[in-house]
Amino acid sequence: MSRSISQVALLVRDYDEAIDFFTRALAFELLEDTPLGNGKRWVRVAPPGGTGGALLLARASTAAQERFVGNQSGGRVFLFLETDDFARDRARMHSHGVRFTEEPRHEEYGTVVVFLDLYGNRWDLVGRRRKIRAREETPMNRKFLIAWLVVFVIYMAGGLVVHGILLGDEYAATGLMRPEAEAQRLMHLMILAHVLMAGAFTWIYARGVENRPWLGQGLRYGLAVAVLFVPVYIIYYVVQPTPGMLAVRQIAYDTILTLILGATVAFLYRGHGR
Q1: Residues forming CATH 3.10.180.10 domain(s) in the chain
Q2: Could you report the per-residue pLDDT of 39-68, keeping only the tens digit for each?
Q3: What is the dihedral of CA 158, 161, 162, 164, to 10 degrees?
């Protein structure tokens, strides 16, 4: 057995003003406008490319029906408009004078905001989280590998600048560093460490990225990771004769580097929030 709801009647005061609102402000398509006689018309509108039912714009013809224009659900959200691009449609609607009653909210199922149609009926504009097929849920895909590589290169280069150039002389003065020739022989372990840390850094972000502005999210992530490093430098300061200002500079420079890495991975994953 196959059944579906083909359309929902929406009470309107005037056919033409309702058609104008839905086709102009909401970018709906006018599917049908057939005269029925005695001033009545069969008017149907729907979002272009949608798979759901249509709206039947039904002009109120009695005083009792007039009272319910704009209040068909008793003040609750009445209809739900889903979109594949929340930011685009919200901006377009706003530019056409659509009234929003709140700022966008981020819920389990996606991003949502309440707006009013021309009569005051409450709608939800919903940007659903993308449905990801089971085989795509693992971050081990092309985007992840590219992000891993980019983060590794920046991390390795940034580490060279911070610890090899900016702090190199201070490290040498402590007497705690290996001779350069010996350090060069062990460079493969340094590279391995940066590969692993870049992979973990990217993997954690990929698993938790949300449908929010990428830059702010990336900087917050970078700062959170930087906070994890601070105790490590404090521990080194306690157990090694490291100068206090060197420890402060290590924390400051690595925090900046981690913020850069956070912004980088967020940029690479922009538009991939869940």
Answers
A1: 7-128
A2: 999 999 999 987 788 999 999 999 999 999
A3: 130
Query: By C-alpha distance, which of 9, 23, 13 is closest to 57?
Result: 9
- Dihedral sign for Cα atoms in the order 258, 260, 264, 267: positive
Q: What is the DSSP letter of 178?
A: P
Residue at token pair 């105790």: 231
Residue for token digits 């500079």? 249
Distance, in Å, from the CA atom of 175 to the CA atom of 30, rounded to the nearest integer, reads 79
Six-digit token pair at 239? 């157990």
Is beta strand 54-59 parallel, antiparallel or unpaired with respect to 7-12? parallel
Query: Pseudo-torsion of CA 212, 138, 228, 211, nearest 10°?
Result: 0
Q: Angle 187-208/142-159 helices, nearest 10 degrees?
A: 130
Q: How far apart are CA 196 and CA 192, in angstroms?
A: 6
* Number of Cβ within a 10 Å radius of residue 253: 17
Please indicate, yes or no, whether the overall pTM of this predicted structure exceeds 0.70.
Answer: no
Q: Which tens digit of pLDDT belongs to each residue from 112-148?
A: 999 999 999 999 999 987 654 444 444 458 889 999 9
Distance CA 109, CA 149 (A): 31
Distances (CA, A) of 200 to 109, 110, 112, 139, 250: 27, 26, 32, 11, 21
Sheet holding 54-59, edge to edge: 7-12, 54-59, 40-46, 29-37
Q: What class has domain 7-128? A: alpha beta
